[in-house]
Design brief:
Length: 260
């Protein structure tokens, strides 16, 4: 796969995807969004990838939002289509059957914050800043922000962030449950990769089904979520990795998972 605005590298079972538009603080234009979609769809069945880290190029920004200049002359229909293109790309990332970790190295604003929200885990540099400043531009967060933020931090904090358009530091975001861990800038990628490697050492199908159970269960009545959880649990008993995991425990050795 050849891309111009994103760069992908793989170390063992861990992939690292970097948004590469440093001259615009990695702002998301149509090309970045299309490349993200193509990339996510292309890797969704790749059994060699067991965890993915997403970060931004340069020292300043994860992603400073949707490309404001590209939005300047959009018609209402073009704006709606742009929003749908972004939602489709982020849905594809959210649906990947392995863990996706956002390593937020700087500004995660607007669409950048919404990209992090589509990931499973957010690790942030202490230099990072999160925010949904769309209302300062006469817009609303429409790359999933009004939907995913309230699910992540609750309605009241989400309304405050969206209505104020203010920036929040990494520690404030950790306190509100948006960020899992805050690191020094130097330690950000090593910490994100370390967690990715830990996750990649676990049984891949168990991770995929646990992710499915958490994400789909969140939208269901608890009784339906519990039913789905039990079904997914049962499905794992037809995998070789379930047999390997339990055999390794009984034989007092490390398991070796193959992803089937
Ligand atoms: N879009 C396009 N270019 C950008 C963006 C952006 N979001 N952010 C920064 N840039 C560009 C700047 O224009 C500048 O380019 P140039 O050197 O050519 O002038 C370059 O990146 C560097 O930026 P600054 O000089 O501004 O750097 P500072 O350190 O002074 O400031 C900030 C950094 C605070 C991040 C500042 O750049 C900023 O406020 N950026 C915009 C942040 C923002 O408002 N993001 C939200 C965008 S809206 C959005 O994401 C909505 C999605 C849903 C709606 C879509 C419906 C169609």
């Amino acid at each position: 796969m050849k891309f111009e605005t994103i760069e992908y590298k793989q170390e063992g079972h861990v992939g690292v995807l970097t948004i590469q538009r440093p001259q615009a603080l990695n702002a998301l234009n149509a090309q970045v969004l299309e490349e993200l979609s193509t990339f996510a769809n292309a890797i969704s069945n790749n059994k060699e990838i067991r965890a993915l880290v997403i970060t931004g190029s340069g020292e300043k920004a994860f992603v400073a939002g949707a490309d404001i200049k590209a939005m300047a002359d959009m018609t209402p229909k073009e704006a709606e289509d742009f929003s749908t293109t972004a939602q489709t790309a982020f849905n594809s990332i959210e649906s990947l059957p392995f863990a996706v970790i956002a390593a937020v190295n700087g500004f995660a604003l607007g669409g950048g914050c919404e990209l992090a929200l589509a990931c499973d885990i957010i690790i942030a540099s202490e230099k990072s800043k999160f925010g949904l400043p769309e209302v300062t531009l006469g817009l609303l967060p429409s790359f999933g922000g009004t939907q995913r933020l309230s699910r992540a931090v609750g309605l009241f904090k989400a309304r405050e962030m969206v209505f104020s358009g203010e920036f929040y530091c990494a520690y404030d975001c950790m306190n509100m449950g948006l960020v899992n861990k805050v690191t020094t800038p130097d330690q950000l990628l090593p910490e994100a990769k370390k967690l990715a490697q830990t996750i990649a050492s676990r049984a891949p199908i168990a991770i995929a089904k646990a992710k499915q159970s958490i994400n789909t269960g969140f939208e269901l009545h608890i009784n339906d979520g519990l039913k789905r959880e039990a079904e997914l649990f049962g499905e794992l008993f037809s995998t070789q990795d379930q047999k390997e995991g339990i055999a390794a425990f009984i034989e007092k050795r490390q398991p070796s998972f193959i992803g089937s």
